[in-house]
Request: fold
Amino acid sequence: MGDPGCVIVEGDRVVAMSAAAAAAGVRVGMRRGGALMLLPEVVIVERDPTREHECENAVAMALLQYTPQVALTEESVLLMDVGASLTLFRGPRALCRRIRADLRAFGITAHLGSAPTARGAWLLARYGCGLRRTLGMSSMSRRLEQLPASVVPLCRPFEAWFDGIGCSTIGDLRRLPRPGLQRRCGRALLDFLDAAYGSACEMHAWFEPPETFRAQIEILDRVEKADELLAGAHGLVLQMLGWLCTRRLAVRRLQLRMVHERGRVARPPTMLEIALADAVWRDDHIVRLLKEKLARQTLEAPVIGLALEVCEVVPMEAPTLSLFPDPNAKETDQQQLLEVLAARLGAENVLRPQPTADHRPNVANTWAHASSRIGAAELAASLPPDGVPFPRPTWLLAEPIRLLMRDNRPFYASALRLVSSPERIEAGWWSGTQTRDYFIAEGTDHTLYWVYRERGSTADGEPELKWFLHGLFG
Reply:
């Protein structure tokens, strides 16, 4: 079965249609009954200006990550002044690829145009020929003159008159006497053309983001699996990034609210909170965390809407001006990896070493949750002093193992031979003194072990020696 086509109507008139409907003869301005007569199986959708305006605002918010100068104009057109951003995003073509990817995240299809003037880019995009190559002012003027005059919105009320005098292109329109054209069509048409050709200044009302960020969307279907919410959440994240870039902020904590059905089966929203150790303003890491957390989330009821709210922000750090790369850049990458692992496996299952300045090995080697961070002063204090001659094993046992004694020698799978001088550790008088002599011992298979002799005394005062295995060397 072929594509039945889709038609958008406002009132009783067709305002837009799909390619399949256009191929069947449906045209803008046609009545609903005429469209049904040409294509009885066509899908008719009522236009919703309120939702269209909300969608335009959402896209404008997301595009703020590329330039702070974004303007909403008539006929669902967004204008962006990217002159100062082209070098940062590696040229207009690379920038347009990123914009298209963001629009796909919103489920939107758009025509993009690039030109030295905003109105010129608008007209070229309207006619579907805006990105064939980078244009200068003269080449843009030549291409604009070849476009149909009906591309200009202010020309459409006078389309029959223009056809009657043989004026079919914008070039023909500009060759008409200006005083007569102004009397017939108004000054606004001349101002529009002058702005498009760069002979007059363009004035725009730039989009202003709110002081705080909270965005929400409605889902057209009832979603019962949390991982299927990622596409909708991605659009909310893009809006948040545009807001962060405009405000020069980075997010440290955000909250995703999953709204359930209302009415008799109403439930409170399911909350999903993301706390970041390092504040970010890019979408790739946040989307990865959302993907992992949603994959582990169980929904108690279907979801019909999403809302994203920024809970904590910090000022965005300025990029380094040093000639050489920042030596701390890799630390951020490692922290992001730990956050992804914690989201996938659970925070309680991802640990990181947290050394403590203590001579006792079992106290000095402790573990903490990956979300905790060690300060520079604490890390420096935990490092052993320079010149310590005693090596440490690769694997330290969680609890020492009491060794058997055979022929007055410690035994572990075989008799152990001591191959190092002793390292005496006496510490912990404030929480239970430990008196130990540590040795490196070798088994018959040449495996090296870290063992210690615990010194104590029996009831009659005789020394009591106990041997323990505490670690293994790699």
About this structure: The chain has a mean pLDDT of 82. The CA atoms of residues 65 and 242 lie 4 Å apart. The radius of gyration is 35 Å. The chain is about 30% helix and 25% strand.
